[in-house]
Write a structure and sequence with these properties.
disordered N terminus, four-stranded mixed sheet, single chain, ten-stranded mixed sheet, alpha/beta, 348 residues, UDP-N-acetylmuramoyl-L-alanine:D-glutamate ligase
């Protein structure tokens, strides 16, 4: 197995375009001080995809302030292409992160008048139109703020109509949204455009998805979005599921407990590992359309792709949680972990 793209001389065809927040996580230390870390779910996803060998473009603008310059420099260092390399006057978004005893983060966001929100649906579309090899687009998390529906929902609809694979990571942050019902409505509206949905057990609770347990809720969410073909359900230390519309389900969990430092960026690394592996499989199969490849994953001949992609995604998340902040692994590191640490399979 090879990575989705081979970077040569610092460049690669752009196969993924990512839109959403880029911010600074101020992570509280035990002594009460705060450690500034580069972050934001979609920003993390950009870095993680590029580190796994996927040609990736970040679509939103970044600030000319010091934090914005640091965010841009890290993206470039990881191989991400900036759709808007010229910085903007607006300031960088901030997130104050407090970790509980288990390393799980609680967030407070400062996002009024910030750089990553200085974008339009037309601008996002123009950037994507300039990428001839583009296979997928992704958004989610804070970009699904109800106040930004006029930006992201038309863009997602246009990208789907253009034949690109639409990926939406629900990644809800209900504590910082002023109107939770409107927020839920916007998230559901975005999911309706998706070919691939990623959601956590917590996301399903925040979205009030019905079901007797978490897996049943995930099945309900997939059924409620008839345009979606694949749903990735993450359960933290309890593993993850991949559910295909045709009924195929795959589960994986690390066989041994991990030495968790924190879980910041774990879901983003998981999604990057999943998409990188699926893109690699699609290219190896010689198909021109990533959407058609995802549609066909439930076929008997393709089910191994789901199993291997899920294991690679889980390995990517596992390596991330053993680092402070979001430190996404590269393709080879995730592949080596998955080979050296066989995962537990479907327990039922």
């Amino acid at each position: 197995m090879t990575s989705a793209s081979t970077i040569s001389n610092g460049t690669a065809p752009i196969h993924a375009a990512i839109a959403g927040e880029a911010l600074i996580d101020l992570i509280r230390r035990p002594d009460g001080s705060y450690l500034p870390c580069l972050g934001g779910a979609l920003y993390n996803l950009c870095r993680a995809l590029a580190r796994q060998g996927v040609g990736t473009q970040y679509l939103n603008p970044l600030s000319r302030d010091r934090f914005g310059r640091e965010l841009a420099a890290q993206l470039v260092a990881d191989g991400v292409v900036l759709a808007q390399p010229e910085p903007v006057q607006q300031v960088t978004s901030l997130a104050v992160v407090n970790l509980d005893a288990h390393g799980h983060p609680d967030y407070a966001f400062y996002r009024e008048g910030v750089a990553d929100r200085a974008v339009s649906a037309a601008g996002l579309g123009d950037s994507c139109a300039a990428l001839p090899a583009l296979q997928l687009v992704c958004t989610g998390a804070l970009a699904l703020d109800a106040r930004d529906t006029a930006i992201y929902l038309p863009w997602l609809a246009a990208q789907r109509a253009a034949g690109r694979c639409v990926v939406v990571d629900a990644n809800l942050r209900p504590s910082v949204m002023p109107d939770l019902p409107a927020y839920r409505t916007t998230v559901h509206a975005a999911l309706a455009h998706a070919h691939i949905i990623k959601a956590s057990d917590e996301d399903l609770e925040h979205l009030a998805v019905p079901g007797v347990d978490t897996l049943a809720r995930a099945q309900h969410l997939l059924a409620a979005n008839p345009q979606a073909h694949l749903l990735a359900l993450t359960l933290g230390a309890e593993g993850a599921w991949l559910l295909h519309r045709n009924g195929v389900q795959r589960f994986a969990q690390e066989a041994q407990p991990l030495p968790v430092v924190d879980t910041v960026g774990a879901g983003d690394s998981f999604l990057a590992g999943l998409l990188a592996h699926l893109l690699g499989q699609s290219q190896a199969a010689g198909g021109a359309s990533f959407v058609r490849f995802v549609e066909a994953l439930a076929a008997d001949a393709c089910q191994h792709a789901l199993r291997h992609a899920l294991r690679h995604a889980l390995a990517s998340a596992s390596l991330c949680v053993m680092e402070q902040g979001c430190v996404p692994p590269g393709w080879e590191a995730a592949r080596a972990w998955s080979q050296q640490h066989p995962a537990a399979q479907d327990p039922r």
